[in-house]
Amino acid sequence: MYIRISGRFTSQISVLTGSENLGNYNTVASARVVVNIGGGYKQYEVPVLTGNALKHWHAVYLAQAYVSLNGKLLNEICERGIGLRGYKVDTKLSDNLKNKEAENEAEAILDVCNDIHGFLLTTKQIKRDSLVKVSFASPVFNPDILEYTSRFAITHNRVDPLTRGSNQTQMMVFKQEESSGPEFGFNISMNMNYVMKPMYTDDVEAIKEYLKKEKIDEEEERKRRIKASIMAVSYLLTGVGSKQARSLGILKPLELIAAISTKPLPNLIHGSYEDYVTSSISLLNLYAKTYNETVYILCYNSNCQEQKSKEEGKQGTSGKLVITNETSIDKFFEELINYAIGSNNK
Predict the structure, then answer these.
(1) Coil, strand or helix at 337
(2) Which of 23, 29, 211, 311 is most buried, taking the most CB atoms under 10 A from its CB?
(3) What is the pTM of this model?
(4) What are the backbone angles phi and psi of residue 209, rounded to the nearest 5°?
């Protein structure tokens, strides 16, 4: 199952991704974007949420969701949200990690984090590509939105409880940059077809034997991992950034579009482009017609019903788009999970 998700969220007074420390001043990550204005181009430096930060937090919440769904196949490193990959499923942090490296891809992907987010063991020359890939989240490429997306610093006080040459504690003052912006866009690609399947070898029997020994149903485990991967996306849109030590981010999802198919899909147009919904549906319509496939599209607050009426007359008999518009985010993710694990596919 191939899943593509694009959309937008609003962010206020948040450290989207921490960047560097300049003395007692902590900065947020920023990037330069170039937009067309009246036939010319203008460059803006804007705060961003890096794809690496989003991917990290997706892995953290993947593990939490997986455990909540009664998943058992994850090592202690994965469960604690530490970004070390390639270790066996029974690994503890107290172990000698050098002795706990997986011997092959099949052994490694018994652990859910190795399976979904990939790994690289240079000493043994084995790896696995991540099944989840995430773009930078950037302000929408509209001059008004870019102009009103800001970076600013807030002063924090931290008390040092240790005495240093006197009986008095010390107050440490530092500044943390935050950012606010009306609309940020993002893009996620999830290739769930390789869940619990090695990419570079055909060694699947070892996985089957291990599951049989542990009395774990293979199909139920596959569905559990897909469901946890989708649930982790929902957590990303409600305040997650790479730095939460001083405060959670103030985030709210604004609109979403997801596409699901049993065959490889093109990535959706990034949510930072103003026409990302119409362009994404046009691209998916081409895919459906060319490969004679059914593509399921779910939309949350993105007015996809109008796009459906425009595309219906162009589909003919060679593939189709099945578009559902949802006004509640819980229904959006519920339907996405049902399509992804096969409950809605006829």
Answers:
(1) helix
(2) 29
(3) 0.89
(4) -65, -40
Q: Using the 8-state DSSP alphabet, how is residue 102 labeled?
A: -
How confident is the prediction along the chain (346 residues), in pLDDT tens digits per residue?
Answer: 999 999 999 988 888 777 777 778 888 889 999 999 888 999 999 999 899 989 999 999 999 999 999 999 999 999 999 989 999 999 999 999 889 999 999 999 999 999 999 999 988 889 999 999 999 999 999 999 999 999 888 888 877 766 666 666 667 788 888 889 999 999 999 999 999 999 988 788 889 999 999 999 999 999 999 999 999 999 988 866 667 777 788 889 999 999 999 999 999 999 999 999 999 999 999 999 898 999 999 999 987 854 444 444 444 445 789 999 998 999 999 999 999 998 555 4
* In the chain, domain spans: 2-13+50-134+184-340
> What is 131-191 written as a DSSP string?
SEEEPPBEE-S-HHHHHT-EEEEEEEEEEE-S-SSSSS-EEEEEEEEEEEEEEEEEEEEEE
- How far apart are the two ends of the chain, measured CA to CA in Å? 14
- How many whole angstroms separate alpha carbon 184 and alpha carbon 327? 20
Q: Would you say how long the chain is, in residues?
A: 346
